[in-house]
Amino acid sequence: MLGTTILLSIAPQVFPEQWLYLFLGVLIFFLTTLVPVELFKTFSAPLYWIGLSSLTLPFVLGTLTRGAIRWVQIGPTSFQPSELIKPTLLIFFASYLSRQPPRFFRSFLYLLPPTVLVLLQPNLGTAAVFVVGWLGCSLSRGISIKKFAVFALLAIIL
Q: Which residues pair with 71 in a beta bridge?
């Protein structure tokens, strides 16, 4: 609410459009809560691969904006594939790490391709969100402090 209020004072011409997107986002949120969790688990791997392939779109169809190629123009609208894959990665990692036994190192290997593709655009903020989302899923699944320390050390080195 604060963000839309600030937007009204900065750019009142886009304020109605922002409210439309806010309404659509809340609607999609509530519709998503009606989907059974098992359905998310079933489609988590295909969604991961679709999302990963969508991250290659900016390199093929992307437009240069402020020194980075992150946006894909389709007709009158444009979108950023890295924003679409954020929830997909959370669903994938939650599903993947819920298996017995959890495979933390393999899940880290699944984290690398989308993170590298986003870093090449370059988009450090989104790559950091990917890593933090993976860490959150890993910590909630019970990653050992030793493994967490190794991954933290690797992240600091990178």
A: 63
How many angstroms from the chain centroid is the CA of residue 54?
A: 12
* Length in residues, the chain: 158
**Percent of the chain scoring above 70 in pLDDT:** 100
Q: How far apart are CA 84 and CA 48, in angstroms?
A: 11
For residue 156 the two structure tokens come to 């600091």
Q: Which amino acid is at 28?
A: I
| β-strand partners of 78 | 73
**Paired sense of beta strands 62-65 and 77-79, if any:** unpaired
pLDDT in tens, 60-104: 887 777 777 788 888 888 888 888 899 999 999 999 888 877 777
